[in-house]
Amino acid sequence: MNGSRVAAPRAVLAWGFGVAGLVLYNWWVLVLFRPSLLRSPNELFSNLEVTGQPYATEMQHADLISGVLFVLAFLAVGWWSLHGGLREWVSMVVFGVAAALGGLFPETCPDEISSACKAQEWHFQLSIQEYLHVVAGIAEFGAITVALVFAYQRTRGHSGRIPATYRGLMIGAVIAYPGLAVAYLFNVAGSIVEGIFFIGFTIMIVVQLRERTHRDPLDAAMAVPGAVSSP
């Protein structure tokens, strides 16, 4: 029977915060329509937020506000909204906090296109703000990846679209993380790799909110390992 896992007003509130957050978080899509913003496909999108770059302030604010909205979305549904999903909920809240901090402490120099800046970064010669941004970025990527691992473990052995989505995201993460390391260390295809991650993060947020705010035939597939979901 279709219904909601949480009270309807809380579900509406959570989706409102979540969708607004995703719109702001995915500001990088605008680069597809203004490719001149990226000086090289090897550049990470975070370099566009370096103070002095076109639209840098707007992008910083977008990251900050989107992170706050993600936190509000998961606070609205509550940790109890998904049986066995507490660890995922905590991880998603940490993800939102880290995303907000990344916008609050933007990069101070474009390390992906400036070898001098990269050398200063590695020798800890930049301002503390640069390293706060790096730590926030690691926490952001790490927290949502941890949430994915927990979600994959929780749904492993079940059939249906939601477990299949988590499996697909896990496979994608295993393939993409080495690519991210190469992109960062060797300045290769940074924007492409980062864009792939942002798409994966968007899917993860949508699926988590879906699970926590809806009770529908997908739940039948989750109830018994190996069950086949109804069409």
Describe this structure in words.
65% of the residues lie in helices and 0% in strands. By secondary structure, it is mainly alpha-helical. It has one domain (8-214). Helix 2 packs antiparallel against helix 3. The radius of gyration is 19 Å and the shape is globular.
Summarize the structure.
By secondary structure, this protein is an all-alpha fold. The chain contains eight helices and no strands. The model is unreliable at 223-231 (pLDDT under 50).
If you average the pLDDT, what whole number results? 88
Order of helices and strands: HHHHHHHH
Strand content: under 5%
Oligomeric assembly: single chain
Q: Helicity level, as a percent range?
A: 55-70%
Using the CA coordinates, give the radius of gyration.
19 Å
Which structural class matches the secondary elements?
A: mainly alpha
| Uncertain segments | 223-231
**Sheet having the most strands:** none
Ends: how far apart? 14 Å
Number of strands: 0
| General shape | globular
